[in-house]
Design brief:
Layout (H helix, E strand, L loop, with lengths): L1 E9 L5 E8 L5 E5 L4 E8 L5 E3 L1 E2 L4 H6 L7 E2 L5 E2 L4 E3 L2 E3 L9 E2 L11 E6 L2 E8 L10 E9 L4 E10 L3 E2 L3 E2 L2 E2 L13 E4 L1 E5 L12 E2 L11 E2 L9 H6 L3 E6 L7 E7 L4 E7 L3 E5 L7 E2 L5 E2 L6 E5 L14 E2 L5 E11 L1
Antiparallel strand pairs: 1-2, 2-3, 3-4, 4-5, 6-18, 7-17, 8-11, 9-10, 12-13, 13-14, 14-15, 15-31, 16-30, 19-22, 19-24, 20-21, 20-23, 23-26, 24-25, 25-31, 26-29, 27-28
């Protein structure tokens, strides 16, 4: 195991962005950068011994600064969408910055556009930290967040989150990695076979805000309880698929008890497999429906549906939705969570 530090580039205001390459005993590698505490690359060898980077994204700061759709970035303090009016805390509305009409998406990029501090904690881990000041984009409290990446010898990318604020506030932090198990330049991901351990999902309105309903997936295109290609039902005549331009929905995961468990698996035709584990109640399946050919790694375009995301989370807009488990935490109460992405060959 080893961690190698290098300079990745500079932010728009000239701050240095560092990169940390972690390699395990199998030759698998991940690269993390201080900008957005991003998971920038993940390398695994396929059955032919060819090294693949299975993360869609950027290999320079120009991409992260000017062309990103949150590729690999940490999103917070509240991931996903918040409806008009902002958060609800103790029965009162707390206005937050809006990004899409009356909707706030990914907290206006607070965590994703910060240049985090970083410490190498051992030969397999790097811990990033960031202080988001009270009132940033309307979110209450001085919030200290730590994100620790560990690469294990079982080819697990382990992401540990720990956030705490000095005021009662909302916390729902995730990583927005886009995977393509054929490689970042492998074309669309519709041929990836996907399994999600969820009997239900949360349908949404035209602003992509969940309605509060928890809907059974049985007989719908959203049923991934038996593995199937992502593209098999994606063009079905379904109002929810039309709303999201494809899959861009939160799944209500089975067996939620606050403990880490397997919640989803994806396998590409080349035999590269991704298993997703989390201790949270939901995961957002997004399949790159709004990728529009922006230039990514090695100068190649990131086209429509060339990456998929499994964003572990509390359900979106939970502070405004009584039927969802709330993600508002008391002052000095910690948001602690673990997500694992495990890569293997089948």
């Amino acid at each position: 195991m080893s961690v190698t530090k290098s300079v990745f580039g500079e932010t728009a205001n000239g701050e240095r962005v560092d990169a940390f390459l972690i390699e395990n005993r199998n030759g698998m590698k991940i690269n993390c950068i201080t900008f957005g505490a991003a998971l920038q690359a993940a390398y695994i060898k396929d059955k032919n011994g060819e090294e693949l980077d299975v993360l869609v994204g950027f290999d320079d700061m120009d991409g992260f600064l000017n062309r990103h759709d949150y590729q690999g970035l940490i999103v917070g303090p509240v991931a996903n969408r918040i409806s008009a009016g902002g958060l609800t805390v103790d029965g009162k509305k707390v206005p937050v910055t809006t990004t899409h009409g009356d909707v706030c998406l990914h907290s206006n990029g607070d965590f994703a556009t910060a240049n985090w501090n970083a410490v190498v904690t051992d030969t397999s881990s790097v811990e990033f930290s960031y202080l988001s000041p009270d009132g940033k984009d309307g979110f209450p409290g001085n919030t200290v967040t730590k994100v620790k990446y560990t690469l294990t010898d079982d080819n697990e990318i382990k992401i540990e989150y720990d956030a705490v604020s000095d005021k009662k506030t909302a916390l729902n932090i995730t990583n927005h990695a886009y995977f393509n198990l054929k490689g970042f330049d492998g074309g669309d991901i519709l041929d990836h076979t996907l399994y999600i351990d969820a009997d239900a999902f949360t349908p949404m309105n035209g602003e992509l805000i969940p309605s509060g309903e928890i809907r059974d997936v049985t007989g719908t295109p959203f049923d991934f309880r038996e593995p199937k290609p992502i593209g098999r039902d994606i063009n079905a005549d379904d109002e929810q698929l039309k709303a999201g331009n494809g899959y861009d929905h939160n799944y209500a995961l089975n067996k939620y008890d606050g403990k880490v468990r397997l919640v989803a698996s994806a396998t590409a035709p080349n035999g590269v497999k991704l298993d997703c584990f989390t201790d949270l109640p939901g995961v957002q399946l997004y399949v790159g429906n709004f990728l529009e050919g922006k230039i990514g790694k090695q100068g190649k375009p990131m086209d429509f549906r060339t990456g998929f995301c499994l964003e572990t989370q509390y359900f979106p807009n939970a502070s405004n939705t009584p039927s969802f488990k709330n993600y508002v935490f008391d002052a000095n109460e910690h948001f602690i969570s673990t997500t694992i992405y495990k890569l293997s060959l089948v």
